[in-house]
Amino acid sequence: MYLKTLYIQGFKSFAQKTKIEFNHKITGIVGPNGSGKSNISDAIMWVLGETSVKTLRGTKMEDVIFSGTDKKRPLGFAEVTIVFDNSDRTLPLEYNEVSVTRRMYRSLESEFLINSVKCRLKDIKELFMDTGIGKDGYSLIGQGKVESILSNRPEQRRAVFEEAAGISKYKMRKLESENK
Ligand code: ATP
Ligand code: MG
C-alpha cells in the first residue's frame, strides 16, 4: 500500500483545489519558507482524524480553513481527500484504491467519508489501525517525534511496537468489551 494522491481544497494556504501526486518511491516537497510544505503534512494528519489544534499548529480548529489574503476572500469550508493504493489489500477493503475525505465547515461540523460514503471518525481509526498509518501511527514522523520515540516512557515506546506488530486493534476491542 502506498499514498497515491492528495487533494486539498480550502485547507490552510490551499485556497484552490490542489492535486498532489506521489509515487511509490520517494517524493520530496521543496519550496521557500512559508510556501505551504508543512501545511501538506498537516492536511494528511487532519484527514486521518487529527483533533489536536496544537498538533495542527493552530490556536483553534477553524484555523485550518483558508482565512483569505489581500486578493482572495476567506472560504467557508476545508476539504482534504487522501487516496491510497490498496492493490495489495493492506486495508481490509475489496478496492484497489481507498480514499478518505474530511470536510469541515466554519460551524466546526466535520464530515468523514471512506470511498465517498459517509462514515464516523471511529471507522477511519479502525480502518488504519495496525497499519502504522493512522494519525498516531509511526508512518508520520514530525519534527521532534524521532526524539520522543527514543526518549519517551517505555509504555509509549511499546505502543509503537504494538502498532507495528498489529495488535492495537485487539487491545482496543478488549478494552471496549471490558467497558461494556
Ligand atoms: P518552512 O520552510 O518555514 O517550514 P513551510 O513551507 O512549511 O515553511 P507552512 O508552515 O506550510 O510553510 O505554511 C505557512 C503559510 O501558510 C503561512 O504563510 C500562513 O499564512 C499560511 N496559512 C496557514 N494557515 C492558513 C489559513 N487558514 N489561511 C490562509 N493561509 C494560511
Ligand atoms: Mg515547515
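^ adenosine-5'-triphosphate complex. The helical segments are 37-47, 121-128, 145-151, 154-165, 168-178. The pocket of adenosine-5'-triphosphate (ligand 1) is lined by residues 12-13, 31, 33-39, 63, 65-67 (CB under 6 Å).
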